[in-house]
Amino acid sequence: MAGNKASKQKFCHHCNSRSASAPPGTSTIHYEKSWLYRHCSLQQRDRQAQKSGQLFSGLLALNVVFLGSAFISSMIFNHVAITLADVWILLSILKVLCLCWIIYYLLGTSRQPHAVLYRDTHAGPVWIRGSLLLFGTFSILLNVFQIGYSVIQINCKSKVEIVFPSIEILFVATQAFFLWHHSKDCIQVQHNLTRCGLMLTIATNLLLWLLAVTNDSIHMEIESQLREVEQRLAGNETDSCACPNTTTCKVFQKGYILLYPFNTEYCLICCSVLYVMWKNVGRRISHHHITHIKPKFKLQGVVFGPLLGAAAVIIGICVFMMYQIQATGSAPNYQVFVLYYSYYIVLLPLMCVVAIIGTIIHTLEKRELDTLKNPTRSLDVVLLMGAALGQIAMSYFSIVAIVATNPRDMLNSLILSYSVLLIFQYITQNIFIIDGLQRQPFAAAEAQHTTHAGQLSAVPELPGEGVTTPSSNQERSQTFPSKEEEVSEEHNREAPDQRRVSVLELGQEFRRVSLSYIHTYSHLGWKRKALKEISFFLVLCNIILWIMPTFGAHPVFENGLQKSFYGYSTWFAIVNFGLPLSVFYRMHSVGGLLEVYVSA
What we know:
This protein has 600 residues and is an all-alpha fold. A two-stranded antiparallel sheet has the order 1-2. 77% of the residues lie in helices and 1% in strands. The protein has 2 domains: 43-289, no CATH class; 304-449 and 522-599, no CATH class. It is a multi-pass membrane protein. Keywords: Cell membrane, Hydrogen ion transport, Ion channel, Ion transport, Membrane, Transmembrane, Transmembrane helix, Transport. The chain crosses the membrane at residues 55-81, 87-107, 127-150, 162-180, 192-212, 257-278, 299-323, 343-361, 381-403, 415-434, 534-553, 565-585. It is found in: Cell membrane.
């Protein structure tokens, strides 16, 4: 780096000396118009402009976040002076501004000549964009349920409660389309405007997430509506704002509660993708930053990891179904909480042990560290560490509540063990993933194994296998002349013969693939084999631990222990802060573990 800087200084000094030594009336103007002069003079100006643009856009986002946070906090502490409708109006204004900028970027900025010369291959992987579409779709359905719930009670609702979800649907759909197609852009024009637009969109998503975390008014209203339905069934009088159609109300209420966590997930994913785009504004990617040998995902080299992981997934689905049936009733069953926490207490230590083993194997490897500057990789590390704080915070709150009340109770002891094990599991898994992401992939070994696999697929492993050639067809026709005559005479036997041939070819292909899989597995070193097994096992475990809280298993709120200790509103805010981060961590760790698996 020092040599490059010195050469650039000499280079620019040469430019300046040549222009200064030129006699009057000569071609000084030609030097100023030359690429050499512009390169020397614009090199430092580009860096200063980039830093100034990032600083200005960051300050803009900071002020917007502080303003929105002040509105939301004022609504919490004084809901008479600042109402929820006031917060919705502010957020609607911000979303309209973001929509205007996104449409301008799609129709104007990105279509300018030389606007997108480089694309960051690490930014916006398929699993991130797929989860973006999934959570965006669920967020749209959430707002549809909210609109339907407000329309049924139109006499007791304000028009803002219908307009705000409508703007939200348009904002979510447009933003998802924008991030799906342009998350990899390294825009080279309109730097400052693009940075400000991206930061404004990040600030808006952060405020939407903060509102979803702290706003429990809709949940309280749904609970009161359910109580009113019970009173109506009992024959008591209710107020005029009760739902006229109990079945429709119940559908909207249950759908809203089920889809509520997806909206917070969508906001967090959008913030991460938009931040990478903000870092890539004006970025020029040189050829040595582009990975020429990029490993691909192949389900080869693993046997025990998929088996153990599949067993964990199947058992977890059974536990989840039993929990959903029993714990969501009017009187939650004590045994189902014991079963739920027991499943975690068995699975979490196993995940901790394999993560520690994988970290030890990483230290024994001789792979070089990936020292190239990559904003996506840096953000992955920050997100893993930051998202883990949500579940760790909830675990510590639970530990304090249990120790202060009755730690000797069976259920409390299980919750205490569950909270402690979760902290250790998050820490050990983060160390394993981050250590694996920072290492270079086995490029040479991967190429060698690809060659072996190609040779294996080219050489016939069994008699009758291999590539079909005209000579082989002729030999086959000479070997079975009578069968061809029967086919020409009896057309009704043509279909069974073709089916028999297809079954034989399918069996030969299956055997060839099996032999290739066994060959690849046997030629892996024990370190690579162990890393692939560990990574795949942890991928499946994190998938089931993502499914259970995402689709409604929330024992931290439904067991009643922490809620009674901290109070409803306080524990609601803690759970809505930690639970979306926990779900986001599981989803993000799956992507990181897949990259560790591919590079191993």
